Amino acid sequence: MRNLLNFIIRYNTWFIFIFYVLLSCTLLFNGRNFYQQSVYLTSANGVSSTVYGMTNSVTGYFNLKEINADLQRRNASLENEVLNLQNQLKYYVTMVDADSASMSSTHASRFDYVIASVINNSVHHPRNYFTINKGANDGIKPGMGVVDQNGVVGIVNVVGSNSSRIISLLNTTQHFSVKIKNTDYIGSLSWYEGNPGIAYIEEMAQHMQFHVGDTVVTSGFSTTFPEGIPVGTVISRVRTTDENFFTLKVKLMSDFPRLSTVRVIKDDFKAELDSLQLYDAANN
Fold first, then answer.
1. Which of 8, 38, 78, 138 has the highest count of CB atoms within 10 angstroms of its CB?
2. b/e per residue, 113-150, with b = 16+ CB within 10 A?
3. Domain coordinates in residue numbering, the chain
4. What predicted TM-score, i.e. pTM, was given to this entire model?
5. Do the Cβ atoms of 244 and 266 come closer than 8 Å?
6. pLDDT in tens, 183-232
């Protein structure tokens, strides 16, 4: 008991100070001083809003990947609908020309997409590849076309159970059949090494007319890509020694160093068309 009294006497100034602080706070915020209460509440709300804002920003940042994946799924679904509608329209035109109004249901949904993430990528070599996290278990097969949200990026090369290697468009061994949008001018697009944002269209006929800024799209002449998928835009014409053809310099749509999410194109008719082409090649 004596020790307790000695402790209180020794620190009595601190106890008095704490008592007055508590009393002041009580009178200030719980009494009738409405001005001080409003200042306190306003300040508290301001601090709370700042804290909640920071919390939401952090949460939103970590949710970006999930949001991006959802947007990719929605975008893939819309692009799939566009491709199938284009295919359906072409079939209608063919049937009208043949004086028939019927349409097979197999022509209504020819294309589908498999969304994948890029887990390894190279852009600085003459022959570049990248790896995705989807494989045979997801229906991926060699020869399928690969695109991102901007355009063509490559072709499936080697397939494992859960991952696949893609031959990048940035590969000097590859040639892509392309055309100037809304024209019948067909050419072969290749990458010359160096700049990952530039490619060239060869074998363009001299009589072909073009404008800087024209969109370059897939021609549809191969079973790898449907017709009309963006590839790039025309920058300029390049002089060549061939008098019958010229080359176009093209700015690629896709940002290859930053590839993240891609889509593999599944064509229900690809196997049949490929087998017919192989048959023709074997008998010529």
1. 138
2. bbbbebeebbbeeeebbbbbebbeebebeeebbbbbbe
3. 2-61, 112-282
4. 0.65
5. no
6. 988 999 999 989 999 999 998 888 888 999 999 999 988 889 999 999 99
